[in-house]
Design a protein that fits this description.
13 helices; Aspartate Aminotransferase, domain 2; globular; single chain; four-stranded mixed β-sheet; binds ligand PLZ; alpha/beta; about 15% strand; Aspartate Aminotransferase, domain 1
Length: about 425
């Protein structure tokens, strides 16, 4: 049954059924697991999320950049339904199956660069990044990993160490993994303007380039606030890596799969990573992630050195094949660009009216506004929260981000109908005006 593509509020948000479920959640689930918008979902599809009280919300979050093809996308549903009846698990390392190999072939073909590649599959973005570091260390025989200010790479010991922001990701969870070094990123709104020079200085003078296994970077920094590094920064970092035998790892967990108006965000500046990590949008919500890299790096690891019980689960692989078909057949790369073309001008004119919007940025359907105290660059997290609250009350699901908690980010499903996109923007405009 398809969901009518219409916002509809029948109770306040959250409604009574969601409130009842929230009370049960609070009694059963630890406080460490937060809730952005406490409505309990019963169905979702297109640009709409339906809750237990029958409210229909406009989705500007895609489950944090996961349902790029929309929730319950028909090609995903069909393939997963067939697979779940055929077999659910064998463990690819025990007795393999074709869909895993198909996904790897597709990733080898579709990721940037026409060199010989290999891919293996794991369950989450963090696991992909952690495995990229394992491969890079093994292939280079070097210990150090370089990451960036405002970077986010996950919540495991290693990836939480790679993550920049202390609260909430790291506070109280140390000691952290050794041999992780952080350098500046070229954040156009906040600087520094010489981030590349500073980064190279730290790498060559403090760490020693010959000790660095990998540089890990998000081509657009996601949780850190949708920071689009200044043009030229990524290519220069990639070139520095090449000159110094360092594995350049692109964490495309959030930016991948048509989100930014390219299949992968690295393509925008023609950057070819040595290893690319993918997850989120890869399988329409089923847990899957990929590590794709140069054959000689990936094959450096001994037999049995990589893996995991569930990595490349057959349901998730079928979902990924359905996602890739959907992206191609519905030309979602073009749809992502179109979303950016609609959103950016409206947000820029909003910025002209309201100086609390310090910056409007992003590419394709990965767009954000950064909120500041008018006339300054001082982050305004309180205004951000006020706007989010208004949007949620009006049935528009939006997410925040940013090291300073002052970024509103927009990640609509790429199949979002344009009338919902426009309506969502109108709600946002009113919320900004009220704040
Ligand atoms: N790398 C670039 O964006 C996940 C985090 C949600 P997992 N981002 C959403 C939260 O608060 O836990 C992410 C990412 C980038 C890695 C990851 C980690 O991916 O699938 O959440 O492990």
């Amino acid at each position: 049954m398809t969901i009518e593509q219409e916002r509809r509020l029948v109770t306040s948000i959250p409604g009574p059924k969601s409130q009842e479920l929230l009370a049960r959640k609070q009694a059963a689930v630890p406080t460490g697991i937060g809730t952005t918008l406490p409505v309990f979902v019963t169905r979702a599809g297109g640009g709409i999320v339906v809750d237990a009280d029958g409210n229909q919300l406009i989705d500007f979050g895609s489950g944090i950049a996961v349902t790029n093809v929309g929730n319950a996308a028909p090609r995903v549903v069909e393939r997963v339904q067939k697979q779940v009846a055929d077999f659910t698990h064998t463990c690819f390392m025990v007795t393999p199956y074709e869909s895993y190999v198909q996904v790897c072939e597709k990733l080898n073909e579709l990721t940037p660069g026409d060199h010989d590649k290999r891919t293996f599959l794991v369950n989450s973005g963090a696991e992909a990044v952690e495995n990229a570091v394992k491969v890079a260390r093994h292939a280079t025989g070097r210990p150090a990993v370089v990451v960036f200010d405002h970077g986010y790479h996950g919540r495991t010991l290693l990836t939480m160490t790679l993550t920049a922001k202390n609260m909430p990701y790291k506070q109280g969870f140390g000691p952290f993994a050794p041999e992780v070094y952080r350098v500046p990123v070229a954040y156009p709104f906040r600087g520094p303007s010489d981030a590349f020079e500073q980064a190279v200085d730290v790498i060559t003078k403090q760490i020693g380039a010959e000790n660095v296994a990998a540089v890990v970077i998000e081509p657009i920094l996601g949780e850190g606030g949708f920071i689009v590094p200044e043009r030229g920064f990524l290519p220069r970092i990639a070139e520095f890596c090449r000159e110094n035998g360092i594995v350049f790892v692109a964490d495309e967990v959030q930016t991948g799969f048509a989100r930014t108006g390219d299949l992968f965000a690295c393509e925008d500046e023609g950057v070819v990573p040595d290893i690319i990590c993918t997850a989120k949008g890869i399988a329409g919500g089923l847990p899957l992630a990929g590590v794709t890299g140069r054959a000689e790096l990936m094959d450096a690891v001994h037999v049995g050195g990589l893996g995991g019980t569930y990595g490349g689960n057959p349901l998730a692989c079928e979902a990924a094949l359905g996602v890739l078909e959907t992206i191609e057949e519905e030309d979602l790369v073009a749809k992502a660009r179109r979303i950016g073309e609609i959103m950016l001008p409206r947000l820029r004119s909003l910025q002209e009216r309201f100086p609390t919007i310090g910056d409007v940025r992003g590419r394709g359907a990965m767009i954000a506004i950064e909120l500041v105290k008018p006339g300054t660059k001082e982050p305004d997290a309180a205004a951000t929260q006020a706007i989010v609250k208004r949007c949620h009350a009006e049935g528009l699901l939006v997410l925040t981000a940013g090291t300073y908690g002052n970024v509103l980010r927009f990640l609509p499903p790429l199949v979002m109908p344009e009338h919902l996109l426009e309506e969502g923007l109108t709600i946002l405009e009113k919320a900004v005006a009220e704040a």
